[in-house]
């Protein structure tokens, strides 16, 4: 009887320690803030070392910033081409707070120019474009398979 209790106790302790060790090191979770957007490229521009790709769907226009790259032999985005890209917002959509947050101030946050600095240059939103985006789907003007 003692052996039976000892074996049972050893079994319980052994299994409880094993499950504890497995819970100790959970695999890290990655948070993906990107959104898939399907639209038409209506403008391509460049500023210093960056391409600006303007994409529009039925509701929204996107200004996508992509660092210039010297890749060749890739499928490049083209003007008036339709693409599905992952985009990541670079700015918060919340309007900036004014001095006293207890006093509500009527403001259209879409009219506020917001900018991102890349080294010595500043890239800003424009009328009709409320945010700036980056895209893991683009390297320069080349489409990548990170969709």
Structure description:
The structure is a single chain. With about 150 residues, the protein is of the alpha+beta class. The chain is about 15% helix and about 35% strand. It contains one helix and nine strands; from the N terminus they run H-E-E-E-E-E-E-E-E-E. The strands form three sheets. Strands 1-2-3-7-4 form a five-stranded mixed beta barrel. A two-stranded antiparallel ribbon has the order 5-6. The protein is elongated and about 85 Å long. The protein starts with a helix and ends with a strand.
Q: What composes the largest sheet?
A: 5 strands, mixed, barrel
Average pLDDT confidence is: 78
Helix content estimate: 10-25%
| Oligomer class | single chain
Low-pLDDT segments, ≥5 res: none
Strand content: 25-35%
Number of strands: 9
Question: Cα-atom Rg, whole angstroms?
Answer: 26 Å
Strand order of the largest sheet: 1-2-3-7-4
3D shape = elongated
In sequence order, what are the helices and strands, one letter per element?
A: HEEEEEEEEE
Structural class: alpha+beta
- Taking the alpha carbons of the first and last residues, their distance comes to 63 Å
Output the number of helix runs: 1
Chain-wise SSE layout:
Blueprint: H1 2-24, E1 35-47, E2 50-56, E3 61-67, E4 82-89, E5 115-118, E6 121-124, E7 132-134, E8 138-139, E9 142-143
Parallel strand pairs: 3-7
Antiparallel strand pairs: 1-2, 1-4, 2-3, 4-7, 5-6, 8-9
Q: Short description, anyone?
A:
The chain is an alpha+beta fold and 147 residues long. It contains 1 helix and 9 strands, in the order αβββββββββ.
